[in-house]
Amino acid sequence: MAIRKAQATWKGKLADGSGQVELGSGAFKGSYSFPSRFEQGPGTNPEELIGAAHAGCFSMAFAHSLAESGYNPKSVHTVASVHLDQVQDGFAITSIELETEAEVPDIEQAAFQDIAQAAKTGCPVSKALAGTNISLNARLVK
Question: What proportion of the chain, given as a percentage, has pLDDT over 70?
Answer without folding.
Answer: 100
